[in-house]
Amino acid sequence: MTLYPGATIGILGDGQLARMMASDARRMGYEVAVFGPTPDGPGGQFASSFFVGGLEDVEAASAFAKTCDVVTLDTEHVSADVMRAVEQVCPLRPSASILCIIQDRLNQKRFLERNGLPQADFVAIDPAAPLKGTEALRFPAIVKTRTHGYDGKGQVRVATQAEVVEAVRAIENRPCIIETSISFDREISVVLARDKSGTIRFYPIAENGHRNHILHLTCVPARIDAATARHAEQIAASIAEALDYVGVMAVEMFAMSDGSLLVNEIAPRVHNSGHFTLGACVTSQFEQHLRAICGLPLGDTTLLHPVVMINLLGEDWLDDPGTVERAASLPNVKLHLYGKRPAKRGRKMGHALIFDSDLNSALRTADSLVRR
Ligand SMILES: Nc1ncnc2c1ncn2[C@@H]1O[C@H](COP(=O)(O)OP(=O)(O)OP(=O)(O)O)[C@@H](O)[C@H]1O
Ligand SMILES: [Mg+2]
Question: How far is the CA of 180 from the centre of ligand 1 (A)?
């Protein structure tokens, strides 16, 4: 069934992704119901209605879903009970069965394994049992919590096997995985949309730079060769197809110096590395996601001009109040702020998009904008 403007899109979770989806949805004439902890959050500020609740609160989520024609999400960290409660009332995109695979890192890695897709070697760790299997792993490695990780939270780098037990303790003995640390050439992501009939549209591949495991900047087009780009698209498409995915999703990958690719992780939603599409592409990832989940034809993903996206974190406010002024003084910079209060270190407060026919010049502008 196609949902036309006037229908209500529900969004579970209220961060910047909810905000940008809500903003595009309102522009397109849809009503938006946001479900989050406080009514004045980033998405709530753009919502037509708001439901207060936590991502474990089945009763509140069910009341929210009853007002929606379709529900989507800002975060995949939604409890299984809430997903089920929503699905009893209206379609959830992506579905609970997809989210259960993605939201647990071990399930996600096993899914990739089943589908023969390349990734870093890993071992599952059960903190309640004696350590097993890690002696075969190549170190250094990274211990990662299986659930509720984001922006590198719940991750500890370990130099040797002897440090593993302490690292698991540092993430509160949560079930986790350990994977080999990869010496990649570049990090890239494929942001794609798949509609209900299985048609896939790719955005141009994004190249990502992280600092302290948090996305720092994205530049597009990625500086990779055409064969690697096609290969990355093939991998991402096979993931979307194996999941029978509908909507926008992102696949983060490590590009190796020998031309090979390893999947880092799958994001079942719009993604930080796709923010460049808001202004640099004909159709933003947010509009595209709405089109897909509403059953409308997918939009054009053509890149209009090269772009660098740089994330603005709490420290860019607290330590350097001149950031906004500098961004506003540049003719080719578009500033997106998320309406989050208060600013905190490591908290994503906004991003800037720098449009420039020359990518290196855009990267220099990005450097001058954020003086961290
Ligand atoms: N095995 C690895 N080898 C090298 N670097 C890694 C590895 N795993 C993670 N990293 C680095 O840490 C970053 C964050 O890791 P990952 O994507 O697993 O975390 P996350 O907390 O789920 O982040 P997010 O959801 O914000 O993307 C990666 O983009 C990469 O820069
Ligand atoms: Mg990641």
Answer: 12
Residue indicated by tokens 């089109």: 291
The candidate with the shortest Cα–Cα distance to 99, out of 265, 249, 268, 272, is: 268
CA of 266 to the centre of ligand 2 (A): 8
Q: What would the DSSP string read from start to end of 316-357?
A: HHHT-TTHHHHHHT-TTEEEEE---SS--TT-EEEEEEEE-S
Supply the DSSP symbol for 294.
Answer: H
Atom of ligand 1 nearest to the CA of 150: 21
- What is the SS3 assignment for 291? helix
Average pLDDT of 241-254? 98
Question: What is the Cα–Cα distance from 23 to 70, expressed in whole angstroms?
Answer: 17
Distance 302 CA to ligand 1 centre (A): 28
SS percent in the chain: helix, strand, coil, step 5: 30, 30, 40
Q: Please state whether the predicted TM-score (pTM) of the whole model is above 0.85.
A: yes
DSSP per-residue letters across 98-120: HHHHHSSHHHHHHHHHHTT--B-
* pLDDT one-digit tens code per residue, 44-74: 999 999 999 999 999 999 999 999 999 999 9
Secondary structure tally for the chain: helices H, strands E: 12, 17
Domains recognised in the chain with CATH numbers: 8-92 (3.40.50.20), 121-180 (3.30.1490.20), 186-369 (3.30.470.20)
Residue 275 burial by CB count (10 A; 0-12/13-18/19+): exposed, middle or buried?
buried
Looking at ligand 1, which atom is closest to the CA of residue 149?
21
Distance 261 CA to ligand 1 centre (A): 15
Q: Identify which of 103, 158, 213, 218 to mutate to test ligand 1's pocket (most ligand atoms within 8 A of the CB).
A: 213
Residue 235 CB coordination number (10 Å): 19
